Amino acid sequence: MHLPIPAVPAPAPAAPDLEARLTDEMASVVAGARRRALRDGDRQIDTAHLLHSLLEADPSARDAFDGGPQLARVLGYLVQRSIGYGLRWQGSVEDSGAIPALTQPGWSPAAVTAMETALSRAAARRDARVHGTDLLAGLLADPECRAVEVLEHAGADAREVAARLA
What we know:
The chain is mostly helical. Helices cover 54% and strands 0% of the residues.
C-alpha cells in the first residue's frame, strides 16, 4: 500500500533586498560603508560604518551637528575607529538589542533596523527617496548602537542631534 506523499510547502518568499530600495545617493553611502567594513576586517556593515560614510557624503546630515567643531570631533573619532579604535569590535556582530523586521546578509541587525527606520521616515512623508537625514535619524533612534556610542565618545549628544532632525 502506498501512502500519499504530503505536498511540500513552497519556500517562503525571500525578504526583499534592502539595498534594492535605496536611491543612488544612499546606495553610494552603503557602498562606502561596505568598503569601510571590508577594510576594517569586519564581516558586517555596522551603524558606525554607515555613520562615517553618511557624514562624508551628505551635507544635510553634517548640518544636523552643532557646528564645525562638533562635526570635526565626530569625524576625527570615526577616523580613529577605522585605524584601530574599532579593533575591539572587529569580528563581532553589532547587536544592540534592536530586532529588525528583515535580516540582510552582510549587515548587523542594528544597521538593518536603522535602514528600515530611514525607509519608514521617507514613506511617512510620501517620498520615495530616502535622504541622508532619514538614515541619520534611523541611526540615532537606537541608543545602544555603535553609531551612537561613537557620537557620545566624540562629545556629541545624540538626542540633541535627533531633535535637530525632527
